[in-house]
Amino acid sequence: MGRNSNLQTLIKEILSSREPLCIGDDQGPRRHACVLVPLLVEDGTHKMLLTKRTDTLAHHKGQISFPGGSCDACDCTLEDTALREAFEEIGLHKDDVKILGRIDDAVTVSSSFVIHPIVGQVPCPYEFTLNTAEVERLIKIPLDVFRPGSSASLSHQLRRDGWTYSGLAWQYEDDIIWGATARVILNFMEIFSDTLVLLSDER
Which residue among 12, 41, 119, 182 is the one 20 to 30 A from 21 at the CA level? Predict the structure, then answer.
C-alpha cells in the first residue's frame, strides 16, 4: 500500500471514530455553508488544495479559501453541498472525489456563516475548470507548511470592512491564509498531525 493510500485510510478511520464539533442554531438562526477540504498527492508530496477568490465577490473577496458555499434546498446532505460547490467553482466532478469524513465546524466572523468542512481526496494531475467570476487561481500547499512550529505560521492582523481580524495565519509564497480558512486548517492539523509525522517517518 502506498503512502497516498495509507493517508486516505488513516484519515477515514480517524474521522469515522470521532464526532465532529457541530455548531447549531441554538444561539439564533445562522447561515450554513459547506466547504470541501481537498487533499492530493503531487510529486510524492501530500498537499491541500485552496482557491484564491476574486475581488468581485460579495463575501470574503480576494481571500484564500476552500471550494464551497451556502447550503441550498436542493442539497440532501452536507457532502452534496460541498461537492456541488466544488464543481461549480473549480470543475471538480463529484465522482472524482473520495469523501473521507467531516472535521469540526467553524464560524466566520464578518458574515456569521457556520462552515461545515468535508475532507476529500482528489486526483492529481486533474484538469480543473475555474469559474473565473469566483476563483482567480488554485493554490496547492504542502501539508508540512501547516505543521506546528512551521516558519510559515504567523500572527496576522487585518482591518477590513470595519472589523479587525487577528489570529493564527500562514504565509505560503505571496499568499496569506487567515480567518475561518486558517481555523479549519488548524483543526485539521490538530486531528492529523501525529498521522502526518508517522507518514513522514515512512519516507
Answer: 41
Region 65-83: mean pLDDT is 94
Q: What is the pLDDT of residues 161-179, one digit of tens each?
A: 566 667 788 999 999 998 8
pLDDT at 101: 97
C-alpha cell at 2: 502506498
In a domain, 203, yes or no: no
What's the total number of domains in the chain? 1
Is 139 domain-assigned?
A: yes
Predicted confidence at residue 25, as pLDDT, reads 65
CA triple 111-116-119, angle to 5 deg: 135
**31 within a domain of the structure (yes/no):** yes
Answer for the pair 165, 156: CB distance below 8 angstroms, yes or no: yes
Closest residue by Cα to residue 68 from 43, 34, 45, 32 = 34
30: its cell numbers: 445562522
Q: What's 70's domain CATH number?
A: 3.90.79.10
Residue 151 lies in a domain: no
